[in-house]
Design a protein that fits this description.
The chain has 378 residues and is mainly beta. It folds into two domains: 3-279, outer membrane lipoprotein receptor (LolB), chain A; 286-375, no CATH class. The chain has helices at 42-50, 82-91, 160-168, 322-330, 366-375; strands at 10-12, 25-26, 56-65, 93-102, 106-113, 116-122, 126-131, 136-141, 175-185, 188-197, 204-212, 218-225, 233-241, 259-264, 283-285, 298-301, 308-311, 333-336, 339-345, 350-354, 359-362. A 13-stranded mixed β-sheet has the order 2-9-10-11-12-13-3-4-5-6-7-8-14. Strands 16-17-21-20-19-18 form a six-stranded antiparallel β-sheet, with helices on one face. A hairpin with a 3-residue loop joins strand 4 and strand 5. It is globular and about 60 Å long.
């Protein structure tokens, strides 16, 4: 199946980025930069990335996110808002994580921030979620003979390979794709695969993936906004080894005094997710059929980079007070054939909150957002 024939998907930018669509212009590569690597076409590089497979890896990942989100006054001190403040901290700023993977069912992510640790690990039979700041841990017993893969039971926000593959499975002719050179990432030679939207309606200027020249595993993902010279998102390895980690790397023993909660993961048919994801974890969501919209589930309007997600049943009345209410009070009021509401914008994300309880969000310009709202089913 050709690249342009792959099923199209929409990535919701909850924490980092992700409306991505398209390969059309697969130009030849001019790899005339250090390090010196054999010339490869974008089409061939895409094929290698899609089929890349390693038995294990371990390393340190650094993420830097600046979506230009507006500050919410009083967030840190407001009653009940500490959790929201922590979410904002996770989806903005710099973070470091240690990651490990061993085929077929072992994975570990340990996020280190402000002298605290948040850890997720799975040894194939059980999984642990641990927060040192709260001194709490949850042990999840996985179903017997579970075939769940680590990427379905652990946060993917710190896995450049998972994020890159989500992006690449969503490309179609609305994107120019080319190999723009080579670079060193975590001491390894890599090709730079650059994706550029062919529309001026998106706030995304480009997405560049650094692809390891030996394993074909993505080592770094960089998202540039349409305006400005600083990355909106950069996620990549600062060190990496492709040796298979030992089984003991995935075991966890709670420190003394930590509160432990035991839970059993229900069968796949009974659950939408295996383990709560890291707040702000980018998630791959298939679009619903046109004209359908269930409360809390997104309906996609538009295609490719111009895609906008609509969620019905938002409790906008609950946003009238507190810090979020203060933010919306300062947001511009807008109106159109779709109705009236408030619009919040940043250099990457635009959100429209309508008075009738709908929320529209996308990596698009405010005008594009309102145009999508006008086309949305009531």
């Amino acid at each position: 199946m050709g690249v342009a024939q792959r099923s199209r998907r929409w990535l919701v930018p909850v924490a980092t980025v992700a409306v991505v669509a398209g390969v059309g212009a697969l130009g030849p590569v001019v790899a005339d930069a250090s390090p010196k690597l054999p010339t490869i076409t974008a089409q061939d590089l895409l094929a290698k990335v899609q089929t890349a497979k390693v038995d294990g890896l371990s390393g340190t990942v650094h993420s830097s996110t600046d979506l230009g989100l507006p500050a919410i006054p009083g967030m840190d001190g407001a009653d009940g808002m500490q959790g929201a403040s922590q979410v904002l901290a996770l989806i903005n700023g710099d973070h470091t994580a240690r990651v490990a993977f061993a085929s077929p069912d072992k994975a570990k992510v340990s996020i280190l921030d402000a002298q605290a640790e948040r850890l997720w690990t799975s040894d194939g039979t059980s999984a642990w979620a641990y927060d040192s700041s709260k001194r709490e841990a949850t042990k999840l017993t996985l179903p017997a003979h579970s075939k769940a893969k680590p990427e379905k039971t652990l946060p993917q926000s710190y896995d450049p390979q998972a994020v890159a593959k989500q992006i690449l499975t969503a490309i179609d002719p609305t994107t120019k794709v080319q190999v723009s050179g080579t670079e060193k990432v975590a001491g390894r030679d890599a090709y730079k695969l650059r994706l550029v939207p062919k529309t001026d309606k998106s706030t995304v200027g480009s997405v560049t993936l650094a692809i390891d020249s030996k394993t074909w595993v993505p080592l770094d993902v960089t998202v540039m906004p349409r305006t400005g010279n600083d990355p909106a998102v950069e996620l990549g390895f600062t060190s990496v080894s492709f040796d298979v980690p030992s089984a003991s790397s995935f075991t966890f023993t709670p420190p003394k005094g930590v509160k432990v909660t035991d839970e059993k993961v229900p069968s796949k048919a009974e659950r939408p997710h295996s383990i709560p994801q890291r707040p702000g974890n980018p998630s791959l969501i298939k679009p619903t059929k046109p004209g359908t919209a269930n409360a809390g589930k997104p309906t996609v309007i538009g295609t490719g980079w111009d895609s906008v997600a609509m969620i019905r049943g938002a409790q906008t009345g609950g946003l009238t007070g507190g810090p979020l209410g203060q933010l919306l009070a300062k947001a511009p009021s807008v109106q159109g054939s779709w109705g009236t509401g408030k619009i919040v914008t940043s250099k990457m994300i635009s959100a429209l909150i309508t008075d009738d309880g709908r929320v529209f969000v996308g990596l698009v310009t405010p005008d594009t957002l309102q145009a999508a709202a006008a086309k949305a089913p009531r």
